[in-house]
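Hello,

Our lab assistant flagged a job as stuck in the queue for most of the afternoon. It eventually completed. Since we weren't sure the result was trustworthy after the delay, we are filing this so someone can double-check. Below is the sequence as submitted and the structure that was eventually returned. Let us know if re-running is recommended.
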Amino acid sequence: MLTRSWSIFAIWLFAYLHSYFYRSANAVIAADLQADIGLNSEQLGLMSSVFYLAFALVQLPLGAALDRWGPRLVTPALMLVGAAGSLLFALGESYLMLTIARALLGVGFAGVLMGALKAFAAWFPSNRFATVSSLFIGVGACGALLAGTPLAWLAGEVGWRAIFAGGAGFVTVAGLAIAVATRSAPRSSAATRQARGSAPARQVAHARPAQGAANEGFGLIVRDHRFWRIAFVNFSSLGVVLAVQGLWGAPYLSVVYGLGDLQVGNALVVMGIGVIIGNLACGWLCDRFGRGVVVITGASVFLTSQALLALAPSGLPIGLTYLAFGLFSAYFVALVDEVRTVFPPHLTGRAMTGLNFFGMTGAMFFQWLMGVIIEASSGGADATAGYRLAFLMTTAMGALALLLYVPVARGGRVR
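-- returned structure --
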């Protein structure tokens, strides 16, 4: 049973690596897209951000679909849409085609993380779920490393179109692996008994809240000011790190510091390593020092790194700054645990899905808005001032979110 659980973990991890890769890929090929398609900064930002908009919108019906049909069917079906998006992106000759392709990619990967977590809840003991989830997110973030130096080198060798065309095949294989080689739950689980219509499952089904109660649950969540305070932190932290790691972190280094493609790729790899280490360490740090301490400390350093990027001093240690940016942005697990303690057990699923919705919406918002600021401030010429203003904007919004979060910060330390 244990070996079977970890083999399923590995299959889902293979799919999640693709999700992280596609989130971050546009950062390295941004200059190629602008040169080949003729995109300006505003178009580049909006086109890239559509991935997160589509991703976020799918979160709303995703939970019900996973409950009804299971992750083994739902996630692969969505991933086939993502494969089509990758192929369309490879063939894209216009701003509109690339935008549609990015939307399809967002839909395609919207069910990987939540589908995996739902499967893990059935395949692993409850007292290991947090550890397994943290490991999954941390190792899965290695997909962003593939979108750094390796992608920069490969794009120079075969071109970005060939990469996305080949990627469509890999995404298809990952989706089929989930459908063929995994199960949504062990055969002996309650979920499987329910699928077979056994008596215990029917009793559980009768115990479920009515649809009206479910809707009221969402109402209770959105009426609680604590949810909005926590969600705003996720909006302005996860949103910014995905916007920078997934797009603007690379052209910033090219324009402001004049770095070459491989140097830019190396910097993104360093940022990705920081994200990985931060995600892996976050759970332990929360247990040791408390959620509030982790979020406030992490956010403070995260904001400091953004302020340094806004000031762009000539002697700025780029590698160290990007490492700190990634390392101290990785407190999503703490926010999930925070929102889990705010609401009663029957509302935590919807509250956590809502939290994830705001993080992905933030990524869309910041990718788009940073592009607008860069384009408007530079007029398409010297974009240095635009990048500085864009990072000043993210720093200001992050500081506001942190101030609003402080009154609801909780300890969360294991005693």
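-- support follow-up --
The delay was a queue issue, not a problem with the job. The result is valid. The domain at 2-185+217-408 is CATH 1.20.1250.20 (Growth Hormone; Chain: A;). The first helix runs from residue 2 to 28.
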